[in-house]
Amino acid sequence: MTSFSAADAAIQPKVEPRPRRKGAGMALWRAIRGNGKAFAGAVLLLIFLIAAILPNLFTPVKNPNARAFALSLPPSGAHLLGTTSYGQDIWAQLVWGTRQTLVVAVIAGALASVLSVLIGVAAAYLGGLADDLLSLLIDVFLVIPAFPLIIVIAAYANGGNLAVIVGVLVITGWSYGARQLRAQALSLRRRDFLESARVRGEGWFYIVNFEILPTMISLIAANFLGAALYAVLTAAGLQFIGLGSPSSVSWGTMLHWAQSAEALQTGQSWWVVAPGLCIALLGAAFALLNYAFDEISNPALRPVRRQRRNRGGN
């Protein structure tokens, strides 16, 4: 019996263990702390989050749309960025506008990422005709000119409604992430740890949620950041051309009203520069954070850095 057991064990195939993410939170923190660009992005995003959640910490003005001040005042101690042609505090509008901008970015980015995961992973896992049809759907949305389509949909669907803007951003922003996730899932479909799960009799729900998706967390997070950046820029563009709600306060609507009042021509440059700069900084924060997720998803980047440091020390 002993010799039979040894021989039987010798012929058993070696099953590749499923990749595990140990201490994902600590790994993310180490990656952000060890990467100057990623750390700068995290700090910028944290500042915007605090301003969105607690705007009263940055300005005493409760109603940024209130026309309670003198018109077209220059920057001063009372009004850090001056006032608009309508008597509104520009700094207060900038701070309060952070909330709507981040809400659009987070909700649209999250929903687009969920749609990307559902379609991209389903196409790779199902294969065959389902893969062909879903891949065709992805390709169609990839080649459609996005911004003209967004303008048409928002204009005919009451674009001033924030829910409509978010829905349009989700519909037009999921395809690129789905293509990436499909390619990654295809590379995992025939891995040994998935074959062993099928042999054990695990269903598709378990395999997808507990075997495939945990190995793709960093890629999903990177896709979310990309979708959020797309949402920020596109929503600001829609609001700038007048497809946002005129009564809402966001950086895009600030640019719209500044352009309508010819702010640059009348010496009110901060009315234009401030929201434009915040849009750029928020976009930079999302882009810089991708460095941390690249480091987690591509471990080869870390040894290269260590080697460079060691060479510099020698």
Automatic annotation (TrEMBL):
Source species: Gryllotalpicola reticulitermitis
InterPro entries: BP-dependent_transpt_permease, MetI-like, MetI-like_sf
Segments passing through the bilayer: 38-58, 102-126, 133-156, 162-182, 228-249, 270-293
Keywords: Cell membrane, Membrane, Transmembrane, Transmembrane helix, Transport
Domain ABC transmembrane type-1: 98-290
Protein name in the entry: ABC transporter permease
PROSITE patterns from the UniProt entry: ABC_TM1 (PS50928)
Membrane topology: Multi-pass membrane protein
PANTHER family: D,D-DIPEPTIDE TRANSPORT SYSTEM PERMEASE PROTEIN DDPC-RELATED, OLIGOPEPTIDE TRANSPORT SYSTEM PERMEASE PROTEIN APPC
Primary location class: membrane
Subcellular localization: Cell membrane
Pfam families: BPD_transp_1
Family: Belongs to the binding-protein-dependent transport system permease family.
Superkingdom classification of source: Bacteria
